[in-house]
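Discussion board: Methods & Data

I've been asked by a reviewer to show the raw model output for two of the constructs in my manuscript, not just the figures. I'm not sure how much to include, so I'm pasting the format here to get opinions. Each protein appears as its amino acid sequence followed by a line of discrete structure tokens. Is this the kind of thing reviewers expect to see in a supplement, or should I convert it first? Here is construct A:
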Amino acid sequence: LTAYRAPGFKQYMVTAFKTVMDMWLVVIPVVMTVGTLATILATYTPIFTWIGLPFVPLLELLQVPEAQAASETMIIGFADMFLPSILIESVENSMTQFIVGVLSVCQLIYLSEVGGVILGSKIPVGLGKLFAIFLIRTLITLPIIVLVAHLFF
């Protein structure tokens, strides 16, 4: 009986079109801005080096080679999924590259993608909660990824 009250196909298409236009005109510019600013900050400032310092002891405890270089990529994953992989390419150790690459995919909450869409939606989640979710996902998946890396490398 709910189907009788549902909007018709035409109304559905109009709503879908409005949603797509909203994404293109509102969310995508924010996503591009966040990604660009994060790239500039990562390239020309040491801010992500400083923010990543708390991860160095954890990475050393987990016996991750080149823990300092890997720590710099841990938080930047919050801004964009691809930046950690780009920044870790200069590291010679394949295990460290593997850990950073897999972690960047597992973190899942990126301001330049999913996070931007969530913040632009009606979901009652703020930036602080998104960052907390990001950190929790990082801390849960990091030991698992490192364990798998130690098995393969």
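Construct B, same format:
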Amino acid sequence: MLRHVIAPSSGWTKAPHTVVRDRRLNSDAKVLLLYVQGLPDSATDRPLGELAGKLEMKGRPYQLAKRQLVEHGYLHEWRAQGEGGRWATDQLFTNTPLTSAEARTVRARLEQDGGRSPGAAAAVTPPPSRRQPTVGRPTSRAAGGYEPEEDHSDKTTPHPPSEAERPEARLAEAEAEAAQAQAGSEAGEAETGAAAAEAETEAAAEAEGVPGPHPAPAPHPAPAPHPASQLARAERLLLSLRHSRRDLLLGVREARGLAVEAVKWLEGGLPEGDLRQALLADPPEAGVRSAVGFLRHRLIQKCPVTPLPAPPPPPPARELIACAGEGEEHVFRPLGDETRCADCRRAAAYASWMVDTDTYDFPEDMTWRQRVAAVREADALRAARVTPG
């Protein structure tokens, strides 16, 4: 680091008014400037960051102070690459603001005087010299000459047939298949002849009045499809998706694992076309990264569910009828075969309790209509009980 300051007297540092009164610099920048100004010449071989570290100025405060010093001309930096390929940074620190041109002039003069910074000296350090290998020169690798102790050639798998042998093998397989087909057709003709002879014998027996053999029992109805057939349908559907979208290519094992989820929708009555549409509709814009993960998510989360049957319509509302209770005439809408409204039924129940307990206490939630009806009902019950005596 180069320095261009007025040398102060020993023991204390002179602070220029241009620095102390500069409102553009914060306190950290001013303290750092005055600290570097008062250092001896032996301290100029250290970077500014190391000098700021001795003031416990690190991180954000140091970066802000350095930026202010650079912006206002107190600190100038030059970064260059030396002959050895190493990068070095030269720093010029001054207690008087300098422009870029003035700073370059001062730098050139100081370097001529022998005040080169250690960074520049490191940049011109000669590269390391070549060294001889410790264990001699490299030699070529020796190979070959190894003979196995045991011969395992008879236990190895034979090589596949050559291209010349493959057509002959295919021809032999074709001839074997043709022979099997011919044998099957001959067996079918023999069975057809036997069935025709049996039919003629039965017809002759019926014409002569002789009871023929018992007729064969009627074939049993076809059994319900086994879950395995549903799994096969779901597997074929999943494997066929690659014809519509190439990125949904599945292996047999992957399709077999996803068929367990797909068969749930087929057993629920969802047609194959609707299931296929649900799996292919709305493809992602970025494409499908994993066909297995995409289809599993669609089958578990986004596959349409068969609609539930509509609930039965509510019963029609019944007509209003007149209440048979005491008091003013009023109407209500019955829910069943009752002839009294809810208030009158509650009043009748409470009146019976009042007669049995001989009390006139009413609950707080009882309306005035219910209370009047309860009193009238209680009086009627008492009168009915007193009259026979």
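Answer (T.O., handling editor elsewhere):
This is acceptable in a supplement if you add a one-line summary per construct. For B, something like: The longest strand covers residues 87-94.
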